[in-house]
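Q: Can someone sanity-check these two? First one:
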Amino acid sequence: MRAQRFTRAVTICCLIAGGIGLAGCETNPYTGRRQLLMTSVGQEMQMGAQAYNQVRNDPKMRPSQDPREIEPVRRVAARIVEAAKRSKYAEMAQQFQWEVTVIKDDKTANAFALPGGKMAVYTGIFPMAKTEAGLAAVMGHEVVHALARHGAERMSQGQAANIGMQVIGAAIGIGSKNPALGQAAMGALGVGAQVGVLLPFSRKHESEADYIGILLAADAGYDPRESVVLWERMAQSGGGGQPEFMSTHPSHDTRIEQLKEWMPEAMEIYQKRAPMPAAPLPEIGGR
């Protein structure tokens, strides 16, 4: 009987998820992947602006005042944005209000781009990127996260999962005479949703951003082969982490192999553009 209720609840959940998917799906113009999106672009841009202001107003975050750090980032950002405006995301790129901040944090090897075009680059990424071409691989990747609406897709997946959990919880015994059974089942389903749905989509986001990101970098005139060198440096820097199936990011080896597979397409674009020099980024620390 309990098994029947569980099966029926899962069926209901799938039907609801299917209905949500039909109501809010879009297709990625590069990969053809269907995306569940339950927020508007305007809402995303508003959230992106709010998050960006929080970062900039955080007393722990120090915007760099050093032109040697600011100028190459702005130069790369401007060329990536111009490439985005020529891309299949042209309409979105045109309406975004692009802005970039360099954050003085030599220990954080990171960068991000928020919905609406607000970007930040931490100086700790410089030793990994090494050159402006390496930085273009990083920034192309982050810009794609914003243009492909990956943040909105993650939120939408979470909303859909929560709806499904509530339906299943009501159907299989949360609050019934045997609440322990319902809680145990919900716990199992929570792990199932996390590993089986949410995290794999996050890995798809990362791979999608890697792929389209090197196309943007190539179209901006930066050698896309630097993306492979970048991730080889990332791998050499250490940090094994969790197994790939439990991670939101592909493994370094997976990433490098995928980039190599996509490289002929990126090189074909790059060879049609005036190449940008692989200018070295400034050294950090000890100055």
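And here is the second, same format, sequence then tokens:
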Amino acid sequence: MNSENKVLKVLKNLDLYISAISLIVLVVLTTLGVLMRYMVGKPFTWLEEVQLFCMVWIVFAASGAAFRTHNHVAIEIVVEAMPSKMQKIVEYFIDAIVLIVLGYLMVQSFGFVKLFLRSGRSTSMLEIPYWLIYGIAPLSCIDMLVSYFHTKYVSDKKIKEVA
């Protein structure tokens, strides 16, 4: 594998790497926090802020990857039982719903982040700016939209053509 392909692979899966690193940090720090609290008697007072940051980044960073890997919950048995023309109609309806919901979430999350930028609000202990914690939300919406439609209309067609 040449270096250009490696770079593309890393960029394509950047959301997975971010969520994996956030999960590792969350688990390690939470474990250390429990040990410090109950064995040493000196809890990390800042741990909750880092846990919040990690949980938000895990959820939002991994959401695009969930679309790419078809890991969102879906009840396909109902659609598969329909005639093929009706299946197409339902698929386009689902596409429209996904587009509307993610578009709405993206617009709202941009407003949310903008509010935190204007207010300058940050966490109390570590002073992590809230715009940084929640700034992944609008980026994640873009990632989800791209992942959903790319997987559905580009990647899946390539797979069907090969089969």
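A (reply): Looked at the second one. The mean pLDDT is 90. The chain has one domain: 3-162.
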